[in-house]
Structures are given as structure tokens and as C-alpha cells.
Design brief:
The protein has about 525 residues and is an all-alpha fold. The protein has helices at about 5-40, 40-80, 85-110, 115-120, 130-140, 145-160, 165-170, 170-185, 185-190, 200-215, 215-220, 235-265, 270-305, 310-335, 340-345, 355-370, 370-385, 390-415, 415-445, 450-475, 485-510, 510-525.
Amino acid sequence: MSEGSAAQGRIARRASLVALGTLGSRILGAARDAVIAASFATAVTDLFWLAFTIPNAFRVLLGEGAVSGAFVPVYVEAREKEGVERARRVLGQIAGGLLFLLTILVVLGIAFAEELVTVYGSGLRERPEDFAVAVELTRAVFPYVLLAGLAALATGALNASGRFGWPAFAPAFLNIALIAAPFVFVDFVEGLGYPAIFALVVGTLLGGVLQLGVQLPPAKKLGLPIAPRFERPDPYTRKAFKLLLPLLAALGVYQLNVALSRTIASHQASAISYLYYGQRLVEIPQGMFAMAIATAALPSISEAVARGDRDAAKTLFRSGLRMALFVSLPSSALLIALGTPSVAVLFGRGAFGETAIVETGRSLVAQAAGIWAVASIRTVVPLFHALNDTRTPVVASGLNLVVFGATAFLLFPLYGHVGLACAITAAAAVQLAGLLLLLRHRVGPLGFRSLVRPVGSMLVAAVGAGAAMAFVASFGDWRAGGNVPTNLGLFVLAALVGGGVYVGLAYALGVDELRALLAAVKRKLGRR
């Protein structure tokens, strides 16, 4: 059996659950957007999404940063070194500290809602009625931060205990609640004297309750005390919150990156939309696969580090990185070869005309070229977190911001929104290089020589698949959009051909990740 085969199988099984949950959430998210768009005027929904910006940013931080970066490794370390009982006490104290901090955050968010709306929507000052509604929406929706934080802690605790099912599907409940909100809660909020858009606030808060609630029974069954404990903090608890501080800085870096890209893009008509729609498509493989693999690998890596077995941790890291590249390289190939066709099929109708299809397709191709880098970053960062190092990833994020800003200012005057998309890809590649250099300095040689052949095989398979997809897609009339029946058929055919070519070449070239995946499917079918 090749190096890390057992680890690959374990990570693949866990990642498949997380990916399935993410896929369900993405599908429901698309349905949510469609329902909300059909139920409320765009001018009104803009106010809600503006109000939801800050709480959602903290949700992302807690779900993808704070819990995975600070709490899970410390909980695993306490469990491995001190035993289950002390680890449970630490978890309860973390819940208590998190509840305290989030309560303060919610109070501050409500108190300074007017200032927040001014920062993120300064143009609303010219429309006093809209500004007032946005402020009230911000105050009403801010308590979601508290629910999302505790739900993220439950997710982390369950993942650290080897349970990935309910945590993977919990985020979908927010989308379910928001889908139901326009049908169920409009009369309720209007009866209280609020505008109909406040139904989405009720849906958001209900979604937060459901996200947390569905994870409590499995947590209780495992004896995980998500209930807060307010007592003298254990040294492990203090360590967890010390690790949290740099992750708060990461939120600031992320917000600066978002603000910078929007500011630059606003100087070209429709550039923000071209980038946004392209990014939505790129986020599908990034969210489904990259985050799934990182989530699945972190507990095992943390356990190895807690045991002092760095060689095992590096083996697990290489296995996760190989798995990330195995899915991200063909994802890049698909969205590069089928960039314009993807946009045409999904968005090309109504007001989304030929120009929008072509320009969004160009943006998508440039961003898709960096999927492998983002997937790799999300695999590297958990190893830093397992080493109780949350500062280095933040420094690397700052490097990303600097490179993006410099590259964007250089390329935007020449290539417009495509230059911005290229800057996003370049910044991710430089960030990855920086992380790998710093990681090697921290833990020694990473054993990347063993990756040359398998990753080279994956790249050959991905290029072959991309060429096959591009050939099939060349017969389509993509500028005509998604309403042309033959376009949809050609798109599906191209994707199937590309998938078949990738699997065939990967199998012929002996890619272990494919063999592990096929073996897992065979075992699953054999049990039925």
C-alpha cells in the first residue's frame, strides 16, 4: 500500500460527507436567492443583504477560522494528553467564553448599527428612509452571530470526535429557513408593524436556531458539553482564546480585500457583476471540495501533532494536499474549458445578454486558473492551526492583500475586470508559496518529492479532460445563451466526456486517490 493510503481513504470518506452537505447547501442557496428575488424588489433586498454583511462575515470567520484554527486543535490536544473528562471541561469553558464574547459583540453591533450601515452603505445617507430601514435590519439580524458561533463550536466538537454527518448538513437549515420566510413570516412581521423584508430576519434567526439545534442531540449522545461553563478558565481554554486573536485580524484583512476589489471594479461598468457571477461558479468546487478536505483532515492532523508525531502529521498533510489537487485540477480544467458555456447555461437569459455572457466567461476563466492554489491554501492552513500557529496564516493573508492590490492596479487599466480576476489568481499563488516556505521553515522538509509523479499524473489527466471538453463545446452557440436547447445538451455532454477522460487517464496513470475512491465506492455497494 502506498504512503498515506489509509489516511487518504479516511480523509476521502470524511470529505465526501462534508462535500455532500456543502452541495446540498449550495443547491438550497440557489433556491433561496431565486425565492427572495421573486418575493421582494431588488432595492429592498439590497437593504437586507447590506444588513447581513457584518453578521455573515463573522459567520465565515467562526465557521472557517476560529473554531478550526483555535478551538478544535486545543480540544484535541487536551483530550489526547489529559483525557476525555478534562477535554470536556475545556469545551464547556470555551462555550462559556465564546458566549460571553459573542454577546458583547452583538450588543456592540446593535448599539453601533447606524455607524456600520454608514461604513458599508454610505450612499444610503442620501435616502433617509432606506437608511433607517437598513439600520433596523442590522440591529434585528445581528443576534444571528451568537447562534452561528455556538453552531460552529458544535460543528468543531463533533468533527474532532469523528462525526461529520450532521455538521455537514447543518448550514443548509439557514437556507431552508430563508426559503420559507417569504411564505410564512411576512404576515407575522407586517402584523407587528414592520416592513415585509423583516420576514428574512425571522428566517435568519430561525435558521441559526436550527443550525445549532440539529447538532445538539448527536453532541449530547457523545457526551460533548456544548452548554457553557462559567468558571476559572483551564490553561487549555486560555490557550484557545489566545490563538483566536490573530484570527480576528484575519477578518480585517478579508474585509480590506473585499473593499479593495469592489472599489477598483466600480471604475468599470458592470465589472462588479462580471466578477461576482464568475466567483459564484468558482466557489462551487472551492466550497464543496477544498473546505471539505480541510475540515476532514484537521482532526486527524491535530491528533498526530498532540501525540508529538510530526512525521504522521506531515503524511496526513500530504494526503490531504494530494486529495485537494485531485479534485481541484479537473475543476480548474472544467471551468477554463467550459467558462463561457457555464455562464451561458446558468445565467444566459433575459437581461443577461451576449456581452454579459462573454465578459463573465472571461472573468471565470481567469479565476478558475487559481482554484488549485486556493484549494491547496485551505489544506496547508489546518497544519498551522494544528501546530497552534494562527499568526502565520494571517501574515500570508496580508501578503495576498498586498500582491492583489499591486497586481490589480497594474492590470486593471490594461484588461479591466479580467485583470482583476488575474490579480485574484496571482495573489492566491503567491500566498500559497509563502505558506509552504514558512511551513518548511517550521517543520522541516515536507516530502514533496513524493508528490511529483502523482500530481504530474493528475495534471496530465486534467489537461486531457480540458482539451476533450473544449472540443465538444466548440460545437455550441454559447453567445445565444441558455435558452438554446442544444446548448444545454452539449454542455452536459462536454462535462461527461471531460469527467470520463479524467477518470480514464487518472486510472491508467495509477493515481492512488482515484483508486482509493473507487475502493470506497465498491465497499459501500458491497454492504447493500
